[in-house]
Amino acid sequence: MTLEPGITWLILGGLALLNVGMIVMVQTERSQQKQVLRFWHHVGLPMGSQKVADSLRRRLRRSAIAASTGALAGLVVSAGILFFSPSSFTVTFAWTVVLPTVFIGTTAFDVCVALRDTLFRQPPGTPRLARAEAVSLGDYISPVRLWVPPVLLLLAVLFGALVLALGLFGVIEVGAFGQSQELPILLIALLVLCGSAVLASRALQQPQPVTDVLELAWDDALRAETLRKLALLATLTSWLAIAAVGNGLINAFDSTGSTDGSFIAPQLFNWGYIAALYLFSFGGAYSYFRYRLWPNFTFSTVDATGTGSG
Amino acid sequence: MILINPRSAVPPFEQIRVQVIELIRAGGLLPQTRLPTVRKLAADLGLAPNTVARAYRELELNGAVETRGRHGTFIADHTTDRSRGQKAAEEYVQQIRALNLSDIDAITLLKTALQAN
């Protein structure tokens, strides 16, 4: 075993331990309370009752367990690729294989929980509430966050086409470009984008069985969170595709002896990764739905159904 | 918001119908607003899809909403009393044409009906 695959195995083991630790930690009452407080702070809705807090705590716990299990599944896939196909190892294995599989696993498992579960239940004989108008993705995610993934993927495709054109004119060596991992990553990014769109559509069609406006608002908050995670995944994989095409271009130039850069593409990805996390964590990323669906949200336990919008 | 009380004597489809009309009158549902799909609203309210479909059908007959095939159900553009009267008049004209009656007959029949009421 050479040094680099050894380090990759260490990274895989470390990440696996970290996720097992997360699953264990999220079982504790203190950790669950912290999760609820953090989400509450992000969303900015009134908690209202213990019932809401308890439902939220259970749901966030399930979501965290699913995300960590998904990350473990992603790590197993990466380990499988490394074990059964050692020839596929390159210096960029950690960010071209490990990162996407972990991201996809984390989000896919988390979204599956969101699509299977409902935050609240309607006890028999109690009044039932529903929004009178249809909602769309634009009610939960801001236009910028909604358009970033397809635009990035389009850029990646255009960038790839440009590289092929350069190859046709003999500026770069197309063979070296083709040997890189950019084409599979581009394909994965496309599949993730399409899959995200389908899952987002399904999330919007999920029933919201609630008995008052506060429950509906919290259900909206969790739906917005699911859609935010899907958009973040699509953004990261699309950005990864751009970085991978960039890496392929560098490799192609390398074969002509004009550059020396196997570190530029990972750096490019890292900066984009930080920017994407920033975009999907700040600037109303968690509370955008509130401005769209609940602009004048007020809640009183006396008149629990007559306030809010929608 | 639509609130269904399962203990009410009023059937659920009627509760939906009345509340949608009320929301339109109060300005809570503006023209061209898309309503949830039948399945979605039924799932949210814990009702059978047929119940919601019946409410939508009745709203459409009232002229309060319009169905645009796969695009969904929308609040109709003009749901004032005058526009509903206009729609009823158009339906009356269609029936008169189907019966092969003349315009004079149609006006005479209408005048008779108005005088009788």
* End-to-end distance of chain A: 61 Å
Shape of chain A: globular
Number of discrete helical segments of chain A: 10
What class would the helix/strand composition of chain A place it in? mainly alpha
Largest sheet of chain B: 2 strands, antiparallel
Total number of beta strands of chain A: 1
Largest sheet of chain A: none
List how many beta strands of chain B DSSP finds: 3
In percent, how helical is the residue content of chain B? Answer: 55-70%
Percent of sequence in beta strands of chain A: under 5%
Strand content of chain B: 5-15%
Q: How many whole angstroms does the radius of gyration of chain B measure?
A: 17 Å
- For the residues shown, what is the average pLDDT of chain A? 85
Structure commentary:
- Chain A has 310 residues and is mainly α.
- Chain A has ten helices and one strand.
- Helices cover 71% and strands 1% of the residues of chain A.
- The N and C termini of chain A lie far apart (61 Å).
- Residues 301-310 of chain A have low confidence and may be disordered.
- Chain B is mostly helical.
- Chain B has five helices and three strands; from the N terminus they run βαααββαα.
- Chain B has a two-stranded antiparallel ribbon.
- In chain B, helix 1 crosses helix 3 (49-62) and helix 2 crosses helix 3.
- Chains A and B meet through strand 1 of A and strand 1, helix 1 and helix 2 of B.
